[in-house]
Amino acid sequence: MSQFSLFDAGSDHLDIDLPDGSLRYWPALIPAAAADQLLQTLLTQVAWEQSEITIAGQRRKIPRLNAWYGERGADYRYSGRLFRAMPWLPSLRQLLQQLEQVSGARFNSALVNLYRDGKDSVDWHSDDEPELGANPVIASISLGAVRRFQLKHKTRRDLALQTLQLEHGSLLLMAGAFQHHWRHRLPKMQGVSAPRINITFRWVVHGNQRAPVVA
Ligand SMILES: O=C(O)CCC(=O)C(=O)O
Ligand SMILES: [Mn+2]
Question: What residue ranges do the domains of the chain occupy?
């Protein structure tokens, strides 16, 4: 893959002002043509599978396809299932290197989700598995169909449900205590027939590693 920058160096970001965590959003980090190409590359190259998870003792297929990539040993466990990291695809490695520069954070793995159309979704959850450590920095790249990403505070009923539209080529950086205090979801959306890919870059603590200290 070529080494030129995927990102628009002058791309604007905005800080989303919410209590109990930090959220920063770049609506157009990856210019449209590069984002189109990355979407096509990932649609064809990712080893997509429809995982089964166990909820309340029942096996269920999740309503999306996914795959887990990362450095060797950066494995991830959720809902009773172990995801072993597959070696980085060149396109994901390039994205990783450039994201580390933009965000000032480090990542060793990524969950890649494919929402085939508006019937696919992810339900309310926080990315708070123990292997992500305390206060994880999570970099979320969106490609394809624009979908609603919703946020709900875990305890403060006075805070309204928040809805962001995650654009093609956007980056949402979630950090600080965000995963402790907020849940997020991607609801089903009628009338959406195009696919969307979301990639969340994460740092999984494994072996003797510690979570990186971010200034
Ligand atoms: O698709 C998204 O924007 C969010 C995905 C997500 O929250 C997750 O995979 O943990
Ligand atoms: Mn999540």
Answer: 14-202
What separation in Å is there between the alpha carbon of 180 and the centre of ligand 2?
12
* Length of the chain as a residue count: 215
Per DSSP, 83 falls in state E
Report which DSSP code applies to 192.
-
Atom of ligand 1 minimally distant from the CA of 142: 3
- For the CA of 140, the nearest atom of ligand 1: 3
Q: What is the DSSP letter of 212?
A: P
Q: How far is the CA of 208 from the centre of ligand 1 (A)?
A: 28
Concatenated DSSP letters for 28-80? TSS-HHHHHHHHHHHHHHS--B--EEEETTEEEE-SSEEEEEESTT--EEETT
**pLDDT tens track for 128-179:** 988 898 999 999 999 999 999 999 999 999 999 999 999 999 999 999 999 9
Instruction: Provide the 10 A C-beta neighbour count for residue 97.
Output: 12
Return the best residue to mutate from 116, 124, 138, 186 for the ligand 1 pocket (most ligand atoms within 8 A of CB). 186
Measured distance CA(44)–CA(24) in Å, rounded: 30
**pTM of the full structure:** 0.94
Closest to 149 (Cα-Cα) out of 136, 138, 135: 138
| CATH 2.60.120.590 matches 14-202 | yes
